[in-house]
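Q: Given only this backbone (511 positions), what sequence would you predict?
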């Protein structure tokens, strides 16, 4: 999967494919001009005789080149209208480019610098984003495919003759974020027989400790001692015991202790919480068989939180960040929790279980309760969870519904969404839904009274576990963490959704 990207001064002899990016109706630039000369005007002529290729964003045209010009083939890729060219447009073009590039089974590709004319985007930045788009699109989860059957052939991309240093610097910065996205994708794509609460917790340690993140694993015994009755109930049906994992990253100036001592939220850490149900069968309220395999992605929230911590630590973000993930497997068995059980959450609130398939909110309730006991004045709390099918019905795979109780936090999230390309849509919080989650026989129940507004009642349930006055957002990533169809920069299956927008949020508003 991994290929190298190198900035080189001169074209390499082993490179067989030349990529030529250009604006809509634009000109070729960089080494493509030399290749055009060497081949007697072949590239410019190709553009003339293929008028259907205009350079629309992501449009591509592949040609074989005459012998003696150094490359076997060239692939033109359109960047689109000059007025619309920005970082995200470059990324999209790079992502689409990979889709047409891979049919030629390239191994060593070279990229020519684009001629951007008077465009305000500088060409080094544009190139870095095209490459980043290509990298995001070329992701392939092939851990379990035998070596001789792996599909990805690409080993190296040279970025030839441009302003090396700038492009290198830009690309490195983008690549750190992409590594976090890949961490999240890899975790989501792992099969649940390999990735279960204990193995997930160990993977988090192995990944984040070397980056300077403090990782604390709370096993089931400690969870029992602490009184995490909700998360434990979810895991009861499974052989694989639940875990909570706390990650602490001390990138800010103030020391980040095991517990928060800050007096005001302004000085508090940023807190992230992730749902990590490593497989959701539904439990005794079992799900239908069709599509159940997809429920290995029910730890997408935890995966995004871990991917985010990876990126923050790797780029040495100047912020104090605490993350907690609740890991459990939801299985039916003679030990499993039942509909009508009444359980006691860490916070002390009791919960009537009406449906064992509404388990994510139970795991989150304990994670939220515990992290707020440790850090009672966080700057904000953002939880990510593949929480409801209703969210997917409402917004599909394009937008992530985000419930936010604080306008300032939402305003920052909205900006980060626009800048990162991960789309958020604000959803309503309402007393009506909060109230709907109150039970006749316990403090709360885990399912609303009607089958409508399921994503909103789930948020209403979580709201009961947020301390008064704390800025909080719940991101229901049920539709965005996983997709069966590919987008330009997101191949099918685990998307790693959340890493980019939250990294952007921190970089632009909280560092
Ligand atoms: N993990 C599911 C939600 C989900 C469904 C995520 C589809 C991604 C794709 C969650 O645990 C669940 O089953 N929720 C129930 C809640 C209901 C029983 C109140 C749902 O949405 O049906
Ligand atoms: Zn469920
Ligand atoms: Zn679930």
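A: Predicted residues:
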């Amino acid at each position: 999967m991994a290929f190298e990207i190198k900035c080189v001064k001169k074209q390499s002899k082993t490179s067989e494919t030349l990529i030529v990016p250009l604006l809509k109706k634009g000109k070729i630039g960089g080494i493509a001009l030399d290749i055009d000369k060497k081949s007697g005007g072949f590239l410019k002529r190709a553009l003339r005789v293929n008028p259907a290729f205009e350079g629309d964003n992501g449009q591509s045209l592949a040609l074989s080149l005459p012998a003696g010009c150094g490359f076997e083939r060239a692939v033109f890729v359109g960047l689109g209208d000059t007025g619309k060219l920005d970082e995200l447009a470059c990324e999209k073009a790079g992502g689409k480019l990979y889709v047409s590039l891979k049919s030629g089974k390239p191994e060593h590709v070279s990229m020519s610098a684009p001629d951007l004319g008077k465009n305000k985007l500088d060409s080094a930045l544009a190139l870095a984003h095209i490459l980043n788009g290509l990298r995001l699109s070329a992701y392939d989860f092939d851990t379990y495919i035998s070596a001789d059957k792996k599909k990805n052939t690409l080993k190296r991309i040279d970025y030839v003759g441009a302003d090396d240093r700038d492009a290198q610097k830009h690309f490195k910065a983008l690549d750190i974020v992409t590594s976090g996205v890949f961490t999240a994708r890899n975790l989501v794509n792992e099969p649940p027989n390999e990735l279960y609460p204990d193995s997930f917790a160990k993977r988090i340690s192995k990944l984040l400790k070397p980056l300077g993140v403090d990782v604390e694993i709370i096993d089931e015994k400690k969870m029992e001692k602490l009184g995490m009755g909700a998360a434990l109930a979810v895991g009861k049906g499974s052989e694989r015991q639940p875990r909570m994992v706390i990650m602490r990253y001390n990138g800010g100036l103030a020391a980040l202790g095991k517990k928060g001592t800050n007096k005001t939220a302004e000085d508090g850490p940023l807190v992230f919480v992730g749902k990590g149900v490593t497989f959701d069968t539904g439990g005794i309220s079992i799900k239908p068989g069709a599509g159940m395999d997809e429920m290995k992605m029910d730890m997408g929230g935890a995966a995004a939180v871990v991917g985010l911590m990876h990126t923050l630590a790797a780029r040495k973000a100047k912020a104090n960040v605490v993350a907690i993930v609740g890991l459990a497997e939801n299985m039916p068995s003679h030990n499993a929790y039942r509909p009508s059980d009444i359980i006691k959450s860490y916070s002390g609130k009791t919960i009537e279980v009406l449906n064992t398939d509404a388990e994510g909110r139970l795991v989150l309730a304990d994670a939220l309760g515990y992290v707020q006991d440790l850090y009672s004045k966080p700057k904000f709390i953002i939880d990510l969870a593949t929480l409801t099918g209703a969210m997917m019905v409402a917004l599909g795979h394009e937008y992530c519904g985000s419930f936010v109780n604080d306008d300032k936090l939402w305003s920052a999230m909205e900006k980060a969404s626009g800048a990162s390309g991960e789309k958020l849509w604000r959803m309503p919080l309402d007393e009506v839904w909060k109230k709907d989650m109150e039970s006749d026989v316990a403090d709360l129940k885990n399912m609303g009274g009607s089958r409508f507004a399921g994503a909103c009642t789930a948020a209403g349930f979580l709201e009961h576990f947020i301390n008064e006055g704390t800025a909080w957002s719940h991101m229901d990533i049920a539709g965005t963490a996983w997709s069966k169809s590919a987008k330009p920069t997101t191949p099918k299956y685990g998307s790693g959704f959340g890493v980019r927008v939250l990294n952007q949020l921190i970089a632009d508003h909280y560092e």
